Amino acid sequence: MHRAGDNISQCKVLTASFVPLQAGDSRDMSRELQDVDLAEVKPLVEKGEEQDIETLHGSIHVTLCGTPKGNRPVILTYHDIGMNHKTCYNPLFNSEDMQEITQHFAVCHVDAPGQQDGAASFPLGYMYPSMDQLAEMLPGVLHQFGLKSVIGMGTGAGAYILTRFALNNPEMVEGLVLINVNPCAEGWMDWAASKISGWTQALPDMVVSHLFGKEEMQNNVEVVHTYRQHILNDMNPGNLHLFINAYNSRRDLEIERPMPGAHTVTLQCPALLVVGDSSPAVDAVPAKLAEAFKYFVQGMGYSEYGVSCSTVERKVW
Fold first, then answer.
1. Tell me, what's the pLDDT at 19?
2. What is the dihedral of CA 237, 199, 125, 231, to 10 degrees?
3. 101 CB contacts (<8 Å, ≥6 apart)?
4. Rounded to the nearest 5 degrees, what angle is found at the Cα of 23, between the Cα atoms of 207 and 3?
5. 306 Cβ contact list (under 8 Å, min separation 6)
6. Cα 78 from Cα 205, distance rounded (Å)
7. Considering only CA atoms, which of 178, 212, 217 is closest in space to residue 11?
8. In order of start, what are the domains of the chain with their CATH numbers?
9. Residue 65: is it exposed, middle or buried by C-beta count within 10 angstroms (0-12/13-18/19+)?
10. pTM over 0.85, yes/no
């Protein structure tokens, strides 16, 4: 297993070296994303094996694409609120740039309970798992498919869940790609704002305001409309509301910078952080995010599997 020795220093180096997405790129990314129509999201090139897996805290919907190869980790994805793995990750994994990765690594997409397309409503009185419990469901997924380790890719709420999973099970996580992660609990002002929004806004508007900034909603009307239609037509509103409540009730991850001689809570794997001014995670142009991911995997020591940089910026490994 390829492991970082000094966690924090490795994370800082990886973030500085492998993240081509900068805050100033968000406007360009938003313009390019106008060509992406989620209503026409194509299925993954390799049809995935879909399963409902029983775990410690209930059933979870999982799609495995490709065949796990030897001791190589599997890429495990987790989506944000208001999405599932299709709307959150199909634009990326369908891109030509990402095929260079997926031909060497299997991909395991996890949908939070009740968030997959066509999900049935939970029974009255159902207690939705907390964010901590959602993370505790993931070892069962790895066990079901016989997976030893993963490279996690999470967006928003999914990034939080994968970070908690890595803190709890460092031996199962070789690396993390965290897109717009918020490691902090919701503050009192955030809580009050969300309560007021819940009284005055319809559910699709609440989710859209989470995914897009005000400027983006003005400049990308068609994209925002596509997301709103997805929430209205494809997602179970009751189930979505439960997931939102779980995310809004999260606690601090309490990650600390390592100090010599002191016990600290910190990641034991390299982490790639992807952020933007106000762009939602899916606004990262697939080609740019795929390129960042290639560099990240290279830095983890997997260049021997033939993963290479783009022809535009090809480098000798």
1. 37
2. 10
3. 75, 290, 293, 294, 297, 307
4. 90
5. 104
6. 22
7. 178
8. 44-300 (3.40.50.1820)
9. buried
10. no
3-state SS assignment for residue 52? strand
Amino acid making up residue 273: L
Tokens at residue 177, please? 């790609």
CB atoms near residue 12 (< 10 Å): 15
For 94-108, what is each residue's pLDDT tens digit?
A: 888 898 899 999 999
* Averaged pLDDT, 34-46: 39
- Check: CB of residue 53 under 8 Å from CB of residue 181: no
Residues 111, 89: Cα–Cα separation, whole Å: 11
Distance of CA 155 to the CA centre of its chain: 3
Q: What is the pairing mode between strands 58-65 and 107-111?
A: antiparallel
Location of structure tokens 């997926």:
102
Higher-pLDDT residue of 149 and 283 is: 149
Question: What is d(CA 158, CA 289) in angstroms, rounded to the nearest whole number?
Answer: 17
Please, how many CA atoms are within 13 Å of residue 211, restricted to the half-sphere of its CB?
Answer: 29
- Is the pLDDT at 119 greater than 50? The verdict is yes
Distance CA 39, CA 246 (A): 27
- Could you give the CA distance from residue 4 to residue 18 in angstroms, rounded to a whole number? 15
Chain centroid to CA 277: 18
Strand order in the sheet with 150-155: 49-55, 58-65, 107-111, 74-78, 150-155, 173-179, 271-274
DSSP per position, 54-104: EETTEEEEEEEES---TTPPEEEEE--TT--HHHHHHHHHTSHHHHHHHTT
Output the six-digit token pair for 133.
């419990």
Looking at residue 235, the DSSP 8-state letter turns out to be S
What single letter denotes the amino acid at residue 302? Y
Residues 199-254 pLDDT 10s: 446 788 888 888 877 777 887 788 888 888 989 899 999 999 999 999 999 999 98
